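User: Fold this; tokens only.

Assistant: Input:
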Amino acid sequence: MMKNSKAIRITAVCAVTALITGSAVYAVNLGESYLAVEAGISEISGQIKETGKIHGAEDKIYYASVTAPIEAVSVKNGDRINRGDSVIKYDGNDLKRMLTEAEIRTAQAELDYSGKIKESDSNASKYRNAKNNDEAYAALYWMYREKNNEITEEEFARSYALQCEIDSVNKEIAEKEREIEESRHKKNKATGYGTKEEDDYSEKNVKDIKKAQKKIDRLNEELCELKKGLYITGEGAATPEENAALNDVNNVMEDIVRNWSEEKERKAAYEKMIMNDDEKEALKKNTDLNREEEKEIAEKLAKAEKGVNADFSGIVTELNVHDGAYVTEGMPLFTLESTENVVCRTDISRYDIADVRLGQKAVTETGGRMFEGEVTKINSLATEDSSDKSRIEVEVSVPDAGEAAIIGMEADVTIFTETSEDTLVIPVEAFYSDDGGDYCYIVENGRVAKKYVTAGIKTKDQVEIKTGISIGDIIITDAVTDDSVGERARYVLN
């Protein structure tokens, strides 16, 4: 009995051992077990998460529109102001004084212009009258000449020349007679006008008497010669009948020539006092320049009286002036950032910027609140961060932020780059990349297989697969390497 019991025990142990060994062999033949998912259809949205800062969509630097002292500044740096609020008031007293001076200069220039134009017009009228008279005397002269054809032009010219010579001699005779009279006066003075005896004459008196008498004698001789010449000239002038006719002609022609000459002189004088077009234009431009200067100062005074008002509601982010400061035109006064339209500005890496588009939905979280907006601007100029990595600034709208919008406050931004509905997706932990491209591992016919895929949208949890696998494929989510490709595998669906 004992031997049989021992034999049974041995047989049982062998049977158990064989069972265990068979199970192990069967398990090895089934392959390693992996966690996996079944590739399926879902919706996926790409996301880019960054941090940024809140800013006004519009910011404006206000510059001084006039050169003037600052009377009052009604804000401080960081103040919130409303559209239309008065920010800066100018002191316009200097501009008022300048405007008064400019008005006086303009009035003087206009009076000067008006007066000179009137004077010129008056001279032009006088010139026209003198010109008409000139032409009338010329016509009268030739008309008279035509009526006296019996007197030739040569005769008239000769008679006129002789008469001029006679007039010249008569003038010279009169001058000699005046000199003789002066010499006699000097002689009489030297003789005491007949009250002195010759014995009383001084040496000087004697010299003066002799000198005066000598000059009188010389002048009398010259006078006699002149009178002889006048007689000869008169004898050769014309016959008594010719002389009578010539005298009549001379009298008329002398009047014509005299009046004619006077009119010519007047005409020339008036012509010089007429302003030409260039002079009038220069005078007008000077007047216009004064008007423009007055207008410019008046406009500046109006700006000064208006002061500087906010064009929109916002925050004063920089204030450059204070009460009493003297500013010049073009000087920066303050910077205002809008709170009516608020944005979040964030920097996107060069890897993600290709996925960002205008109009994409975005969510901004700041001050414990979330705001749904969209991408409104993508900067065209890249900058570098502290690690010398290229970053591109993107603006995301933050609508209806109101009082929650604190300019300069940090915010978290999520940009939804793309959305695909009813698309094939796999978990991000099942997605790999190498030199050959993007890929994943699947269980295919009970073995591990490597499948290269074309990826689409990526999120932190999922990846869109456009080609390479199909719906229902078993995607391994456990860590796998190429060493396992081709080996038998089991899977457990998550």
